Amino acid sequence: MGSICFMSIRKAEFAFELPGFKPGETLRCATRRIGIRTDDHPSSKANSVVASLVDCRKFKNGSQKGKDFYLICDFADPGLSDLEVIQKAINTYRKRWKIEEVHRQMKQDLQWENMRLASYVKLKNLNMLITISQCFIYSCKDMIEKIAEAFPKLICYRKEDWQKLRKFVYYRLCQVIKLCLQRATLYNTSPYKDDLIDPWQMKYGRFKKWGDVSIPNNP
Question: Which of 71, 83, 110, 182 could cross-link to 54 by cystine, CB 3.0-4.6 Å?
Fold first, then answer.
């Protein structure tokens, strides 16, 4: 059923035009409701779900650029018009690159791919801790913007610096946190001798990989 509706959208009139992703680019779009089979094997009585298929074409200077790209979506509000469905799908698609940038930053700065765990539960806990760390790093941007508004000469020396605050600045924030961890000092005050076998393993094990924390020999 999904393939039949997919062919019908190609014959539809692309009546909706939206701004493109680049300057001077426009998107001509059309949408149809289609059925998507949810069973493993094709059948005339197969179970299916209904969703919206959005067909988009890029145009620049009156000529089409590249091939069509398709978005499948199903929004909670059934009363959306075709134009509203297309606008919401395109706006959500624009966030795709931001999501990819977040995952790239997590893999590079937090060295996520270098971590190894033996169980699925530990992996989920690690991802939770990494997510908490990311939220803390991202919250620093709000503080920087407040400081920039209160003390503009402290952070922004040129007009171009204001634009940097609105870009993906989390790589730079991770570098600052890394420098802070490199200068961190932890003094052992535990009275138990067992902790002296490897006193930094549990407390600084992850920081050694991420921030290359320097630990004093004689705390």
Answer: 71
